[in-house]
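Before a colleague's protein record goes any further, I have to sign it off. What it holds is a sequence and that sequence's fold in token form. Would you go through it and say whether the fold makes sense for this chain? The record follows directly below this note.
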Amino acid sequence: MDFQKGMIWCGVFFSALSVRAQSIQFGGDVDFFLQTGPQSVETAPGSRQLPGRIFDARINRFILNWASLQATLKKESLQTQIEIAGGEALDGLTPNLAGPGGDPGRFITQATLTYAPSGWRGASLSAGKFFTPLGFETVKAKDNWQYSRSLGFNYAIPFWHQGVTLGVPLWPERLKMNLSVVNGWDGRIAADNNQHFSAILSVNATPNTDFTVNLNVMTGPESAADSVRDVQELNVSYRLNEDWSFAVDGMTGTQTNAVADDRARWSSLAFYARLLVAETWALSARLEEFDDSDQGFALSGGLGGAGLKQKITAATLASRWDLGEGLETRLELRQDRSDSDAFFRDAQGEKASTQASATWALLHRF
């Protein structure tokens, strides 16, 4: 019912604004997958999931993971962007806000107003709900080299924010800084349980079209006890030539008074490589390590026990075929390994230190 109301109100809003807008653009994307693996846990009768996954956890089922419609309206110095979405991925974005009594706006995954008058010399002020700027990967699989998300993206950083952002170009088309004031994390590791704000500083440098550096720092109170959570993230991508591209993404995080008045620490490091084998075929690999061995705090939101201290390494190989007209299909193989045997499960449901999966996905953007 909430989704239907959201569609109606968004339709009314789009219609009203488009009358006076100088330009309006519509788009969208659909993400559908089937996944299998010899290991999983039963989360409900007839439902099995892979520990450590957020957006691609379910196995042995055809899953409509994501379906969205976006509209961008421009008029003079003002731009409005709205996206409404449905699918299994919404439960990953808002696990504490799903179901009756949850957030009635959860189907509006992004909605921003951006004001950028010509006299501001490229600066802009934006307000609304938006996906996080942290991380080399994004919420949507279509924008990533692999289909599954890294452990670092799933657990080291938030997914989305609500707040305001001031964007300032420090060097036109080469260096830009964004400063955001937001409500805090999206509720995956901790619910929104305080009345304080968090700050995000993002610096984007593009010395040339083949080289990009993104630095993100986020800090703010993140619990009822007003303990402070800090995250630092740096990702670098480089296109060597028309065929080869590489990237690295490193994240570190801490939270004071997280476990028995002690500080919790976590970190993640991921390496990426992508090869364009043919015009319509690409292979990509990801090798990562997620270190939650300090207090077991970051991964406590997964299907393992809270406070489980561990390091997990994961290797992922993905193949992508461009079928034309915005349609693509992917095959992915992934192997995760923990230095603990309490997080993953084997085929019999017993504790295991490894987990394997194979995924087929169909994605369309329009």
About this structure: The CA atoms of residues 141 and 342 lie 29 Å apart.
